[in-house]
Amino acid sequence: MLQPVAKNMETEKVKHRYDRIAPLYDILEFPMENMVSARLRRELLSGIGGKILEVGIGTGKNLPYYPKNAMLTGIDISPGMLAHTRRKASELKIEIALSIMDTEKLAFSEGCFDFVVSTFVFCSVADPVRGLREIKRVLKTNGTALFLEHVRSENLFFGKLMDAVNPFVRKIIGPNINRRTVENIKNAGFTPVQIKSTKADIIKQIWAKPTSVYTGKQQRFRHESRKGT
Ligand SMILES: C[S@@+](CC[C@H](N)C(=O)[O-])C[C@H]1O[C@@H](n2cnc3c(N)ncnc32)[C@H](O)[C@@H]1O
């Protein structure tokens, strides 16, 4: 299914940037992937199943961590990145429905996924709260949204430093390094039921449920900080 991609200027810039970087993306990410991300992806995706949507699927780095019997759908704004996912899925013999689509305008009906997954995406999405509201819309009422995202540090000094440096980072490499993604997730109508942070609080795994159905009594909120990652 090919969806017309939004003509939002910022989104177009993001799309072109990732199309350009797509051939080198896995090579550039290799050190970070080996040292940190692979382990966090595996942990985030353990125990999920059913109908799963991954937004901003990129080059398909999460594919090896999905259960064999899951019904997978993946979307990305960049055809260049998506081409790598298509190749990897075929090599790994994984069935997945892939579409070029903007996470701010998902072409799925309400409440059709058990899980929605996003890893390192909401630093780039032009209007993150709008994208997160779309995730909530397509998620079943008792579904779970899973995030692995780098965010603005909660440390006063590092947070301010990230704010100061962000315009330069955006200009040179593109993504925002100071997104308040946990707040954005809440503003989009989710309740984070578990958050695990790296030592510097910059990389977070977040498990979130739609606030409207979250009782707060059945699930104990957990916020863990890791040492040494
Ligand atoms: C840093 S990469 C992460 C790729 C992959 N999720 C991973 O974990 O390696 C960000 C991805 O988000 C995609 N993206 C950014 N904004 C998007 C949007 N509005 N809708 C869909 N995909 C988007 C980019 O094209 C890119 O593939």
How is this structure best summarized?
The chain has 6 helices and 8 strands. The protein is an alpha/beta fold and 229 residues long.
Keywords:
229 residues; alpha/beta; Rossmann fold; 8-stranded mixed β-sheet; 6 helices; disordered N terminus; binds S-adenosylmethionine
Q: Biggest β-sheet: count, sense, barrel?
A: 8 strands, mixed
Topology order in helix (H) and strand (E) letters: HHEEHEEHEHHEEE
Q: Mean pLDDT across all residues, rounded?
A: 90
Q: Can you tell me the CATH topology? A: Rossmann fold
How helix-rich are the residues, as a percent range? 25-40%
What do we call the CATH homologous superfamily? Vaccinia Virus protein VP39
Q: What topology, given as strand order, has the largest sheet?
A: 3-2-1-4-5-7-6-8
Structural features, described:
- With 229 residues, the protein is of the alpha/beta class.
- The protein has a single domain, classed as Rossmann fold (3-Layer(aba) Sandwich), CATH 3.40.50.
- Helices cover 36% and strands 24% of the residues.
- It has 6 helices and 8 strands; from the N terminus they run ααββαββαβααβββ.
- Strands 3-2-1-4-5-7-6-8 form an 8-stranded mixed sheet, with helices on both faces.
- A hairpin with a 5-residue loop joins strand 6 (190-197) and strand 7 (203-210).
- Helix 4 (128-138) packs across helix 6.
- The radius of gyration is 17 Å and the shape is globular.
- The model is unreliable at 1-6 (pLDDT under 50).
